[in-house]
Amino acid sequence: MAKRAAAVTRPFVDLDHRSSIPLARQLYERLRQAILSGQLAPGARLPSTRGLADQLGVARNTVLGAYEQLAAEGYLESVVGRGTTVARVAPDLLLTTPASVARARPRREHPPETTLTERNRALTQLSGAIRPWLAAGQGAMPAFRVGVPALDEFPLRLWARLVARNARRLLPDALTYQSPAGYPPLREAIAAYLGVARGVRCSAEQVLITAGAQGALDLAARVLLEPGEAAWIENPGYFGARGALLAAGARLVPVPVDREGLNVAAGIARAPQARLAIVTPSRQSPLGVTMSVARRLALLEWAKQASAWIVEDDYDSEYRFVGRPLEALQALDDANRVLYVGTFSKVLFPALRLGYLVVPSELVALFIAARRFIDTHAPFLEQAVVTDFMTEGHFLQHIRRMRALYAGRRAALVAAAKRELGEQLEFQAPAAGLHLVGWLPPGLDDMAVSRQAEQHGVEAIPVSRFALEPLPRGGLMLGFAPIPEREIIAGVQRLALALAVPSDQP
């Protein structure tokens, strides 16, 4: 005959009838702890619900509720004719060592230390470095917030109507999973716009909708790079590009930037066989310079000879105040080595989290496959609304209106800076973009000056924050897009007071 497990007949738990914790919960915790500590051995038969209720002086439903919860979690087994027994292998035992099961596990006073890889540690440090300038703004934007458009000028009523209209006409097919490449009508609208406005040569099939420009940079880096491969990055350069490369495990190669943009010769000298380069040729981030034609051709020639890839981040080229917007680098590419990144964060609003990546035709299937396992696809409703915003003419109208607004705010900042800061900061009026850079006198630490400005209620991001290697000179980034002209003038005056105070050199 099979050996029957011994039944537990004595009271083995105590309940506190005065506690605010329900009796059923107390009983559940006591029984679970007795199982995990070994006090109740695997296979031990528990009293019946009625018997244990009588022993403890509680209602039978109290015991029944605790038993049912423990059985649902795999701690107890109920078999007709055998009653309720402790499971042969309790769930928590699979996650513990035999030695730790023999006794009640002590509560940790401190959480266990997390082992970070060098890659994760670098990402954490980078995120901490940019945190002060990525905080969600409440109310009016402070002078001189960078990287944000004039959100108070966005046509919210029109947008709300488009959202409501698209929500009303949603069909069941729109509620299921969509193509990882994105909403086809939006991809067609983007391809048409890029061909006219930026000279980008592409079909709708080459356009992939991403979670902003950052999603595009991340996707490009993880598809095109193997961990440990070298990648050029502008110095100083956009922190989002640095983060995408770090996340992909790339070996970062900082390449200096001068008045002509990325120094291609310096990049070749440092890492001629680099696999990838992320560049901002139309308006370098953060310095604002435009890459010269000679440098563009040299960069394309290097990519062709090295079988490398170029990721062109064209983040705010719509806002050019002198002449027509420049053609994209991709328009000059005759070897299909350039991937083009665009975003709606600067022309519409950052919380939309929609961007796009234009890839060579031969890479489309590979990128779509990779996108499927990142976040599957972008939200459908937002894509549909942006499509209507573009195809009905609102997009270009909004850009024209914002370009005129920003031109006025840019002029106000340049005039006030020359008047109030002429001897303290050296400015060059930007031909495009939403911020300018003021260069400090040699020897001044821009980090220290930035801290002084903050004490006077002014945001002035130090350019050195974006550099992997020391720069010849410190500078401050001053955004003007979200700041009304009167606030720009007042902000310049506060910045002048901050610069008049001797800086606290580190």
Task: Indicate the overall shape.
Answer: elongated
Lateral strand order in the biggest sheet: 3-10-9-8-7-4-5-6
Number of strands: 14
Strand content: 5-15%
SSE pattern, N- to C-terminal: HHHEEHHHHEHEHEEHEHEEEHHHEEHEEH
What does it look like?
- The structure is a single chain.
- By secondary structure, the protein is of the alpha/beta class.
- It has three domains: 1-113, Arc Repressor Mutant, subunit A (Orthogonal Bundle); 120-137 and 170-395, Aspartate Aminotransferase, domain 2, CATH 3.40.640; 397-500, Aspartate Aminotransferase, domain 1 (Alpha-Beta Complex), CATH 3.90.1150.10.
- The protein is 39% helix and 12% strand.
- Helix 8 runs parallel beside helix 9 (239-247).
Summed up:
With 506 residues, the protein is an alpha/beta fold. The protein folds into 3 domains: 1-113, Winged helix-like DNA-binding domain superfamily/Winged helix DNA-binding domain (Arc Repressor Mutant, subunit A, Orthogonal Bundle); 120-137 and 170-395, Type I PLP-dependent aspartate aminotransferase-like (Major domain) (Aspartate Aminotransferase, domain 2), CATH 3.40.640; 397-500, Alpha-Beta Complex (Aspartate Aminotransferase, domain 1).
